[in-house]
Amino acid sequence: NKCRFRKIHPMPLPYPLPVYQIALTYLPDVGPVKGKKLISLYPHLPDVFKLATYSKFASAALDEASKTVQICAEDQVEILWIQDFAYPQRIKHLYDSPLVLFKKGSIDLNAHRLVGVVGTRHASDVGKKVTVDLVQAARKDEVVLVSGFARGIDITLHKACIENQVPTIAVLAGGFRHIYPVENGSFVQPILQNGALLSEYAPHIPPTAYHFPVRNRIIAGISDATVIVEAAEKGGALITADYAFNYDRNVFAVPGSLNRPFSIGCNQLIRSNKAMIYTSWEDLMQELNWQRAADRLALHPDLGQKLFTLNESAVLSLLHREGQLSFNDLAYRSKIEQTDLSLILLNLALMGMIQPTNGDGYMLV
């Protein structure tokens, strides 16, 4: 007798997947840490909403998430789930990274080099000049500058980036429909022309006092290094520095006079060995071991004439777009056999084009 097998098709989801992803963050007591545990235990996300603990909240969370997805579509806001390739890989594995991020703008959040620059809302003329000088010096080095869109040092940085055509990411403490402070609203469109707005809060969620210090972990996490320009003895800039330090990122602080209240925080960071002294952009480049394109050509003059193989070009293109990728991600994305990929990575490393990162990752030099 011949056995007949009936092909079983999975039941369609009652909601699109992004609705479940956002709804997970709307469940009570589900933050980044618990959310990641639930994702690992229930890869089929709708199963979470069937659990006895959450089933009574499921309908409200899913309805609210459906509204959020609709708002994002209306406002052309990109929804980034923690498992997406477009999600910033620098923060993906941090214990408190957001499950979902909302983004406006076309800039790559996994760009090759990102530096956070923050400081007091009561910026002095000296602090503003240091910030503008930093932006002008960074202009030629293909660096994306990140800040928090607040008054003072933050908005000084974003304005200088707009004027000098340096890409910048503004990390907001609320949704994009609630720009705060209101007077900074005029800078949104200029930032989007060459940068992005980023938030862990849906577009219709207004900022609250709690959001601001929590927002700072994203600035610190997505940046390779953070520069504290001015900071009082307490404040948001120091919170950002603490996050960066705990994430094992490079922290720089601009030293200041002992009698200036908004140099106290920077001097404390330097004294406690939580930050290196920021004296110039050149020193930061050297400390991070970042070479300029001209310097690479001087060391490897043949690179200017180098014709890469198709597979080498594919790897370089992926790393340029994503910032950094693991060996397995590179193999999956490039469709290159693992044995061939190992040789390609070795050759590109010997040419000074790529370098290994923590774990089994790779990034452009």
Structure description:
The chain has 15 helices and twelve strands. By secondary structure, the chain is an alpha/beta fold. It has a nine-stranded mixed sheet, with helices on both faces. The protein has a three-stranded antiparallel sheet with strand order 10-12-11. A hairpin with a 4-residue loop joins β11 (354-356) and β12. α1 (17-26) crosses α3 and α5 packs parallel to α6. The N and C termini lie far apart (64 Å). Mean pLDDT is 90; it is low at 1-12.
Order of helices and strands: HHHEHEEHEHEHEHEHEHEHHHEHHEE
Q: How many DSSP E strands?
A: 12
Taken from the alpha-carbon principal axes, the silhouette is globular
**How many H/I helical runs?**
15
Q: What percentage of residues falls in helices of 4 or more residues? A: 40-55%
Main pleated sheet? 9 strands, mixed
What's this, in brief?
With 365 residues, the chain is of the alpha/beta class. Helix content is 44%, strand content 13%.
SSE arrangement:
Layout (H helix, E strand, L loop, with lengths): L16 H10 L5 H10 L10 H24 L2 E4 L7 H4 L7 E5 L9 E5 L6 H14 L5 E4 L5 H12 L3 E4 L16 H7 L1 E4 L11 H12 L2 E4 L7 H11 L3 E4 L10 H8 L4 E2 L3 H7 L5 H7 L10 H13 L1 E3 H8 L3 H13 L3 E3 L4 E4 L1
Q: What are the main properties of this structure?
A:
365 residues; alpha/beta; 9-stranded mixed β-sheet; 3-stranded antiparallel β-sheet; 15 helices; 12 strands; 44% helix; disordered N terminus
